[in-house]
Amino acid sequence: MMDFHIEQWRAWAPGLDSEEAWRAWAENPVRVNDGDAQPSCDFLPAMQRRRLSRLARMTMHVAWPLCGDDEQLPLVFASRHGETPRTYALLGEVAQSQPLSPTQFGLSVHNAIAGQWSILRGQRGESTAIAGEADTFEHAMVEAAGLLGDGAPSVLVVMAEERPPAAYDEWIEDVPFSYALALRVGSIDASGDAREGTRWRLRLAAVEGEAGAAAWPHALAWVGAQHTQRDTLVHTWKARRWIWQRIP
Q1: Which CATH number fits domain 2-193: 3.40.47.10, 3.40.50.620, 3.30.70.270, 3.40.50.11720?
Q2: What is the phi/psi pair of residue 219, to 5°?
Q3: Average pLDDT taken over every residue of the chain
Q4: What is the pLDDT of residue 70?
Q5: Which of 27, 47, 81, 84 has CA atoms 20 to 30 A from the CA of 110?
């Protein structure tokens, strides 16, 4: 069982970049048109922006405002699928016997975005990049709980997925559209002034047999619950049942 204070959070998806837009989506969840939309990240110099993939831009866009200018925060970057467009392009070059770009290969690895964050923000602390299954979001929160338990005052958790190329449609079914969610997470003990509704308890229960995928990715379901004021969320994947509960 883990208790968290969600100090701040921010989400982005194509056409969903405001509280009003997310509230409307939460009341009527639908697949949005993914297209090529991406955050501008105009808080970064143009030369730095050019090196960022779409997934990296999404991550920077949601995470940047949650970290103070001179603040050092541990980062947990979570993505089940990672840089699928970039790795797909690299595989195409291999199939055509073309030389691979060392830069593109280096930026395709799973911890590359965490490294870019550290460089762009001047972060010298711990960063972790994880990839789980459909419950990667909850595994990221477990990682954050460990960092808080080790004494971190707050932890930045980012869950981000980019809609993969069409060639993956037969195998990747849990990314209805590109999205990113950043949470600034603190411990309950350190949040005496927390607003009502910002404290959550997460616990894991066993399931007999194996359960299938949820209707929506767990991170998107959590965003929806924030706007509809749901007090309980149950996310089940295979033999794991994750239960989110608001606490006073």
Answers
A1: 3.40.47.10
A2: -65, -40
A3: 91
A4: 86
A5: 47
